[in-house]
């Protein structure tokens, strides 16, 4: 190759790199697909649609919501982690470690490019209004004395967002969680109805999901697994207040893309996501429905994902659901 032709190749490569960098800086230049790993009408659908609305406002491009709830969200996650890492197919990232541990998928933190967390809803402990459990210490004492004596509703195969932090708390309090009577329910609504009818003693769910039954006097929330009392529910005590140690956890929602996204592109998307998150419209939309805005940037979210995997593995092993 001659010196002249070599310079031409280098110049062309430099132009190509510059073009890619410019495209990343100008993202998005066409509509973006956002995959929601839950059905229409639920909390995930609502929060992601509100996020899409604000992303459209700050970027000037359309963000299209696609609901893919099959397999408990496995289908949706699989589709976006296998997409091209160009930023035009992104998706909802929520608790995922249980899928791998139960053999449903092979997701790890390295499967994703975490962009940012925008919401977290703490788990809460609900009992019937006439329950013998007036507070969390009474419930823990009963479970220590006889773990099988309390019927506790759990989601699906009992590895859902609400169940893991609760079981982790029980383990730390000295309860043998492998002997606890967890009863699978088809969602929180079904579990709450069973609670009211007397078929269950405890339901684990978010606080907003019990609003109607609480107002009707059928259900009481005895504790929330959060660092502080929730602004919308100032009368609901935290578990930490009652046990003297912080226990926090529940579901969380973030935005992610497939692994391998370029750092410049990630920085661009993270920046627009933060603008959308900070907007008055997004903050009001979440708070008006009882959802808690919580922000973690890309780096902090990746660190959190590693801890998430460790906690879920520990709890599922204790529940004897993994070898």
Q: How is this fold's topology laid out?
A:
Elements: H1 3-25, E1 32-36, H2 43-59, E2 63-67, H3 74-81, E3 89-93, H4 97-101, E4 112-122, E5 124-128, H5 136-145, E6 151-155, H6 163-172, E7 181-185, H7 188-197, E8 202-205, H8 211-215, E9 219-224, H9 239-243, E10 250-258, H10 263-278, H11 280-288, E11 293-297, H12 298-318
Overview of the structural elements:
With 323 residues, the chain is of the alpha/beta class. Helix content is 43%, strand content 20%. The chain is globular.
Concise overview:
It is built from twelve helices and eleven strands.
Supply database-style keywords:
323 residues, alpha/beta, five-stranded mixed β-sheet
User: What is the tally of beta strands?
Assistant: 11
In round numbers, the mean pLDDT is 89
**Low-confidence segments:** 11-20
The end-to-end distance, rounded to whole angstroms, is: 60 Å
Helix content: 40-55%
Largest sheet strand order: 2-1-3-10-4-11
Strand content is 15-25%
Give the overall silhouette.
globular
The string of secondary-structure elements, in order, is HEHEHEHEEHEHEHEHEHEHHEH
- Number of helical segments? 12
Return Rg in Å: 22 Å
Question: Pairing-aware structural class of the strands and helices?
Answer: alpha/beta
Largest sheet: 6 strands, mixed
